[in-house]
Write a structure and sequence with these properties.
This protein is α+β, with helices and mostly antiparallel strands and about 950 residues long. About 20% of the residues lie in helices and about 25% in strands.
Length: about 950
């Protein structure tokens, strides 16, 4: 007899559609097994031969956290390229490296949490480096390109499965887990949702990650928009992965639910499928989900829905068909092509902001390269470990020759003297250098500092430290061997870090004046430095009073180098781990004072001084006295040689600003004001004069625009024009097309990007560009009808080199749907659908869905609803309110005609709504003005007559 081979279960049959295979696998899993899949780290089911799986692999500009990998420019730098083909190729390279790395380290995941499509609404946001642009059209174009590269071209199997971050309206680190973004319907639909929607609709997105914050008073992890918006944009089973720790935040910090069982059930039913919480320990999430089922808060169908979405991603990644997976054998890692691509990206990301003829530099130019970033190749929290490294200094050495380049870092050289007259001293050590994160980690926040090096001591001479003030008094201190002072878990101070970094940076200090000297506070622990018999440490008691002995000021070294050069290059900017990063917003646009001193010293010593800003965000810099200024985000492994090639003219710069550079902090609204329309924010609405406008960037060539032609059909506006290189070098031009409503009935953007194209042109060459702009691009969200509307009338089309450098323009007349008065007798007024407001914020009408309006300060707010049609007349107004207060109603800004009060009668429950009524006589089309007094919530206004 021979044993019969067991039949292949349907979920293993590659001839069946994925949906049928998932149905089969689901019915084979036990309820407990399915619940275990809800955690980020889903365990194996050995009896079915199903392997373990984890969601989440950071890959924002290269594979991150898992050790060495190709490091491309930061995301904001990729946005500055305005080059979708380039970004698609970068996505391809990153996904191939993820596959290659996974073949040797199964900790590397294929469900990549990237890209970030949060709009760069406010330049002080700490995570500005992670987004692409302040503009939703440019953001979605770049994000779509990246996700297509990550996904791959195979019609069935995906190379990696990208998840978009962070849903929704998330641009502040300050109180990010408890703050609420007040987003009115127009801003929601015209701005914040757009970047997500257009990227998802392009078809290469596997899911999204909700953000930590709340929107309109409701946590994003229970957002109704996941169901009402996101899942309507595609037929794919999108996987929604929570952000780390956010499920617990629903109870622990946001206090939105009383129990974790309620919170887990609400998040799952809202659409969260995978819970990232408590690291690799799944027991708490599993226990909460089981208790939620026992309490009747969840059904098995709810669990099945979430597990189905996870399995859909796993099937698309080829997990169940290894023999058919076309990506299984990829070994493309750190290839020459990837290195060349990293350099190409770094070159294309450089933006020439100003040039009065100083650039490009002649081959025999003697250059002084100075500044805190002149010999740095900085990484950020979402970088891999460098395989290759090129700093500006190294790039200039390579391009111009070391004999023509002088260098001065500009740090202050100091010694720290104790009250006993001794100096802090770094004890020499033979321990090997270690790069932070070189071995990779599933959670790099857990990486500990080094304890294998001796702590600092004191002696009669001491060690000369390089002191850098990164702004707001935040200092780093570096020993002569290049290691930064850091504090490990034992509290000892050592020269042990290759760079500042970590989730809690342990390499930053602050000098605090004290008793004629200074205390040195370690910012990571909040403790002061103390000198003990067994070495220097941080402690709660006995802080050491230190005297700062300056042996050389940074500006003196800069001035010496500058005076001996033909041209001075000042490289200034930020360290991505300090003063503006995840968990920490910036407080100002200004350059740190230390770097301003260096820039002044260089300029005073040599007027031929140019500034290269290398930063994760814009600065407000006085450029009047500078003949040339460039900006680049931190450019990854090839940043230095890329900058040198642009300075030399080997490459003509063609990067463009992906966000507005404002002149001063006074131009900025509050970081927490998300109403880009009301506060006139971003290039779309800003009415001031920017330092540099959105889309700005210069070239070593010149370009002419001519021959604009327009044709309109039932679906689109077809626009064409010609761009000609009128210069004498081959260069890229980024042609940009904007539109503007000429006679809008509601506030509309000053101009709005609808298309762009980056083209390479030789001298004298021309490109005939054609764009098809769908009519939907001219629509806006009409609060009067609760939907999008194309308003008939004139629209201006503007083509040029930036949002302000317009070379061609024409006006077209579009047919559309005329404005209609609000049918308030039939529909009433949803409170959130105001046209104008003052002092109001949106809050949650109920925990599950809906918006209400309340005074931001709990005292008063004004709301205006234009063109309300009362027909032949009304006799009563009724308002739905929760909480105590008064609603005053007037028409056309006149005296109050009705006052409706819930004071003293409302229950102490923000969701317990009551209906109040009062007499009102009104007819015809009128503007309704409401004044809210007190901390009440207004949900709806109705009229009868």
């Amino acid at each position: 007899m021979t044993a019969q081979t067991p039949p292949t279960p349907p979920f293993r049959d590659p001839q069946l559609p994925f949906a049928k295979r998932i149905d089969d696998l689901l019915q084979r899993l036990t309820p407990d097994e399915k619940i275990s899949f809800l955690h980020q780290f889903a365990p194996a089911v050995d009896r079915l031969g199903v392997g373990a799986f984890r969601t989440g692999q950071e890959a924002l500009h290269g594979v991150a956290w898992m050790g060495p990998a190709t490091v491309f420019p930061q995301a904001v730098g990729l946005g500055a390229t305005w080059n979708t083909d380039l970004v698609r190729r970068i996505g391809e390279a990153v996904s191939k490296e993820a596959r290659a790395m996974r073949a040797h380290d199964d900790r590397v995941g294929l469900n990549v949490w990237s890209p970030t499509v949060n709009l760069l609404r406010h330049p002080l946001w700490g995570r500005n480096e992670e987004g692409y642009s302040e503009d939703p059209k440019l953001t979605s174009a770049i994000a779509t390109a990246y996700t297509r590269g990550l996904r791959g071209e195979h019609p069935v199997y995906w190379r990696t499965a990208p998840v978009l971050k962070h849903w929704l309206a998330h641009n502040n680190e300050t109180d990010r887990a408890t703050s609420s973004s007040s987003v009115r319907p127009r801003v929601l639909h015209e701005y914040d949702l757009r970047a997500f929607r257009e990227t998802v609709e392009a078809g290469a997105v596997a899911g999204v990650m909700p953000a930590y914050n709340l929107v309109n008073g409701r946590p994003n992890h229970v957002s109704p928009y996941l169901r009402e918006q996101l899942r309507t944009w595609t037929e794919e089973d999108l996987l929604v992965c929570s952000d780390a720790g956010a499920p617990s935040n629903l109870v622990d910090s946001e206090h939105y639910f009383a129990t974790h069982e309620e919170a887990t059930a609400a998040a799952l039913r809202a659409g969260v499928d995978s819970f990232t919480d408590h690291g690799t320990d799944s027991t708490q999430i599993v226990a909460r989900a089981k208790r939620a089922c026992e309490q009747g808060l969840l059904t098995e169908d709810d669990i099945d829905t979430a597990v189905r979405r996870q399995l859909s991603v796993r099937f698309r990644l080829g997990e169940f068909d290894p023999q058919d997976d076309p990506h299984a054998g990829i070994e493309d890692f750190d290839t020459p092509a990837h290195r060349a691509l990293a350099q190409e990206a770094a070159e294309q990301a450089i933006v020439l902001l100003k040039n009065e003829g100083l650039l490009p530099l002649a081959p025999d130019t003697r250059i002084a390269v100075v500044g805190l970033l002149a010999d740095e190749c900085k990484l950020d929290w979402y970088s891999g470990t460098l395989l290759h490294r090129s700093t500006p200094l190294e790039g200039l050495y390579e391009r111009f020759g070391a004999e023509r380049v002088r260098f001065a870092e500009g740090v202050d050289r100091i010694r720290l003297k104790t009250l006993a007259g001794t100096f802090l001293h770094v004890v020499p050590s033979d321990a090997a250098d270690e790069a932070r994160g070189a071995e990779g980690a599933l959670d790099p926040a857990l990486l500990a500092g080094r304890t294998d090096l001796p702590p600092l001591t004191t002696d009669a001479v001491g060690t000369e430290f390089a002191l850098t003030d990164w702004g707001e008094g935040v200092l780093t201190l570096r020993a002569p061997d290049g290691r930064y002072l850091s504090v490990a878990g034992d509290g000892r101070v050592r020269a042990s870090a290759d760079q500042p970094g970590g989730w809690v940076v342990q390499e930053t200090f602050r000098l605090e004046p004290h008793d004629g000297g200074h205390l040195l506070r370690h910012l990571g622990t909040g403790r002061h430095v103390s000198v003990a018999a067994d070495g220097v440490k941080v402690a709660d008691a006995d802080p050491e009073t230190l005297e700062l002995v300056v042996t050389e000021r940074g500006e003196d070294a800069v001035a010496r180098a500058a005076a001996q050069a033909d041209v001075v290059l000042v490289v200034a900017g930020n360290d991505p781990h300090i003063n503006g990063r995840e968990t920490e917003d910036r407080t100002t646009l200004r350059l740190p004072a230390h770097q301003e001193r260096l820039l002044r010293a260089a300029r005073a010593a040599n007027p031929r001084t140019l500034l290269a800003l290398t930063s994760a965000y814009p600065y407000a810099v006085d450029t009047a006295a500078l003949p040339a200024v460039l900006w680049t985000a931190h450019g990854g492994q090839a940043a230095g040689i890329a900058l040198a090639r642009v300075l030399s003219g080997d490459v003509s710069p063609a990067g463009r600003l992906p966000q507005t550079w404002y002149e001063t902090d006074a131009d900025l609204p509050s970081l927490l004001d998300y109403d880009v329309i009301g506060c006139r924010q971003t290039y779309l609405y800003f009415e001031g004069t920017p330092l540099f406008p959105f889309g700005h960037g210069l070239s070593y060539a010149s370009f002419s625009y001519d021959g604009m032609a327009v044709r309109i059909d039932d679906a689109a506006v077809h626009v064409s024009f010609t761009v000609t290189n009128t210069g004498d070098v081959t260069a890229d031009e980024v042609a940009q097309l904007y539109t503007r409503a000429v006679e809008p009935s509601a506030p509309r953007p000053r101009r709005e990007l609808v298309a762009h194209r980056r083209v390479t042109l030789a001298p004298g060459a021309r490109a005939d560009l054609a764009f098809q702009v769908p009519l939907s691009a001219f629509e806006f969200w009409d609060v009067a009808r609760g939907g999008r509307r194309l308003e008939p009338g004139p629209y201006e089309l503007l083509a040029g080199a930036s949002s302000e450098d317009v070379r061609l323009r024409t006006t077209v007349l579009l047919d559309g749907e005329p404005a209609a008065p609000r049918p308030v007798l039939q529909r009433g007024l949803d409170a959130a659908d105001f046209d104008e407001q003052s002092g109001a914020v949106l809050v949650d009408r109920a925990r599950t869905s809906g918006d209400a309006v309340t005074p931001a300060d709990g005292r008063s707010a004004e709301l205006v609803y234009r063109d309300c049609d009362f027909g032949d007349g009304v006799t009563e107004v009724r308002v739905s309110v929760a909480g105590g207060g008064v609603v005053d109603l007037s028409l056309d800004g006149g005296a109050p005609l009705a006052s409706l009060s819930s004071e003293g009668t409302a229950p102490d429950d923000p969701y317990a709504y009551t209906t109040l009524g009062a007499g009102l006589v009104a007819a015809g089309v009128r503007d309704v003005h409401l004044r809210l007094r007190g901390p009440l919530r207004l949900a709806h206004v109705g009229f009868t007559g």
